[in-house]
Amino acid sequence: MKLDNVRLLVVRFDEMFHFYRDALGLTPTWGDPAGPYASFDLPGGGSIGLFRREIMASTVGTAARPPEDSAQDRFNLVLRVDDVDALAVALGQRGVALLGAPRDMPSWGLRVAHLRDPDGNLLELIQDLPGDALTSSFHEDETVSLGGQGI
């Protein structure tokens, strides 16, 4: 397992995009000010992702919570793994509850699973989908409400 990126879950996407691109001088590697997702490479390695907070809330089942900062996730620790499904099984055997079953997100190009650490921080396990499973654009409607499972 290795750290893939830190994804900031943001409300004012266009302002955040301009801040990271223009104020900090980072080069976007994906996305534009319209969102809903963008990534920026960091000098020396690593990356920062920006993602519309309401989309992640819908994806992990917290959309019914108030949109204020204290009620919604502010970041998502993204970990790249070799096999999301195998790790999901291993985590279950260790007593760790996922927020839902692993699932393909074709417009993200990823198979994902979400969980929370003991302090409630959001973690996302990712694995690339095969090239023929990718779609050409990001779709907000691909999110899946989990209705409060594990939250």
Automatic annotation (TrEMBL):
One of its GO terms (molecular function) is lyase activity. PROSITE patterns: VOC. The keyword Transcription regulation does not apply. Keywords: Lyase, Metal-binding. This is Lyase. CDD domains: VOC_like. One of its GO terms (biological process) is L-methylmalonyl-CoA metabolic process. Residues 2-128 form the VOC domain. InterPro entries: Glyas_Bleomycin-R_OHBP_Dase, Glyas_Fos-R_dOase_dom, MMCE/EMCE_epimerase, VOC_core.
